[in-house]
Amino acid sequence: MKRTTSIPQPPDSALVSCEAAHAMDGEDRNFVTALARGLELLRAFGPGDDFLGNAELSRRTGIPRPTVSRLTYTLASVGYLVYVEDQEKYRIGQGAMLPGQRYLSGAGIRNVAQPLMQSLAFATGCTVALAAPDRHDMLYLEVCQPRGALVMRLTPGSRLPMATSAIGRAWLAGLPGPRRTAVMAELERQHGARWPGVRTRLERAMREHARRGFCVAHAEWDRSVSGAAAPVRLLDGSEVLSINIGGASTRLSPEVLEGNLGPRIRELADTLATRLWQPA
Description:
The chain is α+β, with helices and mostly antiparallel strands. It has two domains: 33-92, Orthogonal Bundle (Arc Repressor Mutant, subunit A); 98-274, Beta-Lactamase. The chain is 47% helix and 18% strand.
């Protein structure tokens, strides 16, 4: 008789914090804690972080400094980090860049999504961006700017808060019910005493998405910025991204967002859902 094995289903990568990863040690025999901690160190580098030392990496991740020292040595040995001797710190190496570049290429984001996003940015004079979840934030994968002066100085790698931005709310709206419930529970832990107000606005955004297919945020996460966003469901809904369109809140009133930009970003999201991650 042929032996069959089942592949364990991993937890949602958007939810597993460093603390949760530590808690899984010993509870899940499929979970490799050392690997999770190494990847956590790579996550600790933000868009403006050129160099980070072991002490700062330990502070950001909660991993003990002796463990951080061993992990950074290993990551540098295989090219995921580079040790800069005169700084006595590390920077991201080329090895860490390759998986992200292959994801963007393999999903079709560079070849398929970028031209369509750029066309909409030129047509509307707004910034158009595609994002994926990362913990409590949305991480920009691709950003297309309009002609003229930049209003939103955001680039790939920039982060927006998940709960208060249009692009984060749209991602939540695109999730299946059980997964959304799990993410909401994690957001509740993050926001603490502020959660009741945050939850009220999120629930309103979920109702708005159900009615018209997009979410809006007018001068919320940043008082100078407003935007509309829609979820991009890929691979039969097993993966969800989010796409937004935005600009200065003084120019983009709620009426403009709801009557013009929202329907246009919803249409682009529907188009991308049929074209990204499609087999050749």
